[in-house]
Fold:
Amino acid sequence: MNVIDNKGNMISDHWLLIPNLTPIPSESSAIVSLERYLSEKTEIITKANSIGLIVEPDQALDDIANELNQFGIIVLLFPKFTDGRAYSHARLLRQHHNYSGEIRAAGNILRDQLFFMKRCGFDSFILPDDKATTDWISGFSDFSAGYQYSSDDLPIAACERWNTKTLMD
Amino acid sequence: MYSYDSIDRKIVSERIAQFRGQVERRLAGDLTEDEFRPLRLMNGLYLQLHAYMLRVAIPYGTLSSKQMRALAGISRKFDKGYGHFTTRQNIQFNWPKLEDTPDILADLAKVDMHAIQTSGNCIRNITTDPLAGVAADELEDPRPWAEIIRQWSTFHPEFSFLPRKFKIALTGALEDRAAIRFHDIGLQIRKNEEGDIGFEVFVGGGQGRTPVIAKSIRSFLPEGDLLPYLEAILRVYNLQGRRDNLYKARIKILLDAMGPEAFTAAVEKEWQTTRDHTPNLPNEEILRIKAAFSPPKYERPAPSAKSDDALRRDGVPEGFFNWRRWNCIAHRERGYRAVIISLKPPGGIPGDASARQMEIIASLADSFSFGEIRVTHEQNLVLTDVRELDLYPLWKLLDAAGLGTGNASLATDIIACPGLDYCNLANARSIPISQQISERLTEEKLHLTGPFSIKISGCINACGHHHVADIGILGVDKKGEELYQIMLGGNPGNNAAIASILGPAISSDKVVESVESIIDTYLANRQTKETFSQTLGRLGTEIFREALYECH
Structure:
């Protein structure tokens, strides 16, 4: 499983994706499903060193908003590359919940979407098996500026025009 | 009009490089057709019945003469020497080759044009009143806001993979000429009691197989809050809109399923959070964009035109006076008119213009109207700022180019989709029906009837707006035969209404006489100054149904 960060560098992954029926290895960095976290919260917190969540696009995180910053990573799943809900989940995590941990994209993603994902606050990406990483890196820099305020540091057209650092200034 | 700066240009050129790479990967087999399809659609490239079709964006329907010349050049170089203006104020080329499309985009980019988001499940070209900035009934020019929304929606990182396409229209006039109640979001500029500018926000309108009139979810949104509010609507839709069924994926279905109150509450809640985190555009930026739409340098006072008597003494033909009556619209500036160039000559294909015609229109725009052209959702063009003095010389030149038809808003000013002649979704042909109707109705009858709308779609997707016409014509397929359903009483404007079907579908050879018999019934029964929809409202549909089926 190849994982790249949002600059295109390969990263070695200490996170383990634990299927729902598999026991949590002790002192692991365990990524579990949201429903497993909700039902086995205490046990998971005791066993794992650090916890990550994997979230389906139809799952809302509002109910555990106060617990979000204990997760080192939140993996947002793309069942199909045309399913754009995870972009909004990433924005909600960054914008509404001030989530500062890692957000990772997994599932059916295309190189052509990396630019948008990075803008929405994704930090890392699980590459589909047969895809070469070198080819994908250029996807992050398809555009040198954007028109919208978002969850990244891409230059924004209106700010460039008026020499303001961010729209907040 | 708005001019690109270096940032806008760079984004467009980066888009071409990105798309060129995508086409190369597709041709090399690195992208499957399933993967390529959404990517090419987001760049306006469709695979039609016979060839690819490229839809080029004309933001809010505004073109410079230079851009119009470039479109003519592209139609010569890469297509068959014509283009087709659409109901979304865009232009389509029907015969490009896939491998040529990056070069077409490069030619477009030379005049600051592109095909970004003219298709696909993203925010589409923003549309507005074609008379924006000149209409006598305008409260505030909508174009700066259309441009602000254009920029905001371009490559929006969060909203590029929506459940379905998303269309936004706005108007700043009292009369809605942009069909805002039939868009996913419709914005009506309003002034509140303090004199501040804002928007009434309509959501969930649309045509297609489930026609719905949009609901007003907010009566006044201060202008500065526009972008965060749009973000809130789009976010609720992106997260909650259906993705399991293509036909139930538009926001109108979500709004109906949630109910307007719950939907509105969800948007307002999202907005309250979003507005604190979404900074406003710098005021200088809003002023910069507004300045781009300052009025042109009108002649004051404009020289007065000759009297009609004098014109008649000079031998000016009646055709001019007819044309002036229907195609020349009141202007807010004394001595000027907005001129509709009809792309609906008798027997013509609605919305089509040849390369030569496009070039002539570009020159006429330079000579008579400050070098700017608008596209209307009725598939005509507009020169917005013509001196009354120039109307006759302009008409003579238009007429010589086959562009002098005086039928704007009349029964032969027909909207028609490309239909089965081009489109792989169509069940029936639209263009030949339109051609036959426009050949059949005499000028005398057209003028007697007055404003009257006929709109034709070749399938249930309703690209030809058949739901919102006085007479809507819908092509259906019945065991391999092309049949047509006739419906009456639709209206795209302030009194929005969806047409209702009169009865069983009729065969193609009966459509023209049916349309004429409905018009004749209207003429025989209308009271003084009654519009068709008023007569229909007073008499009901039965009398028209009888007239229709008497033809069979």
Observations:
- The longest helix of chain B spans residues 6-27.
- The first strand of chain B starts at residue 45 and ends at 47.
- Chain B touches chain A at residues 5, 7-8, 10-11, 14-15, 17-18, 22, 35, 38-39, 121, 151-152, 154-163, 235, 238-239, 243, 273-274, 277-282, 284-285, 288 (CB under 8 Å).
